[in-house]
Amino acid sequence: MTTELQAVQEFNKVIRDRHSVRKYDPSWKISDEEIKELLGEAILAPSSSNLQPWRFIVITDQDLKEKLLPIAYNQQQVVDASAVIAVLGDVEAYRNAEKIYDQAVSAGLMPLEVRDTMVEKITNGYPNMGPEKLKEIALVDGGLISMQLMLAAKARGYDTVPMGGYNAEAFHELLQIPQRYTTVMLIALGKAAVEGRSSARLPLENVTYWNGFQD
């Protein structure tokens, strides 16, 4: 009982202490190994049919960050943060269904007949949804993993800011990203030079409805 309560208290602290930070200590470096650990925690996030459409580009090279700066409309955190993590969404993630569900069977997480049913449903259904729906799914799942990544970073004492302000077309061109992948957001990751500020939130009663929508 005590352990469970402590876990809740720690999580409450993380979600209340996490704020968007735009000023970073440029001398602070996060090791590749720790970034891998963060991403390993992030990929535990849920996704549609467990297709895990997220892909990451971790940008730590300073020269590359300088090239990214104008593409991100000269937001200084791009060059000062330890890393910029680009979250991408694979709009053809359904092509990985067999690989993912085979792993589930091998790990003893799913019987073979369930695997066969799911793979058939995915491979027949997803391609017929249309490009806009597939992109929508990738963006929703990309949003889930992005938030999980930012909370995981805060739990380790690091700071982040999600960035939607950038030229997506130029970003794709800079990194030669295939059109199969849509950009979800950029996330600056590092050690804050100036603490993020709290922001106002609408009262809960203004955004929550019970058993129906009331405008």
From TrEMBL:
CDD domains: MhqN-like. Residues 15-191 form the Nitroreductase domain. Keywords: Oxidoreductase. It comes from the Bacteria. The keyword Cell membrane does not apply. InterPro entries: Nitroreductase, Nitroreductase-like. GO terms for molecular function: oxidoreductase activity. Belongs to the nitroreductase family. This is NAD(P)H nitroreductase.
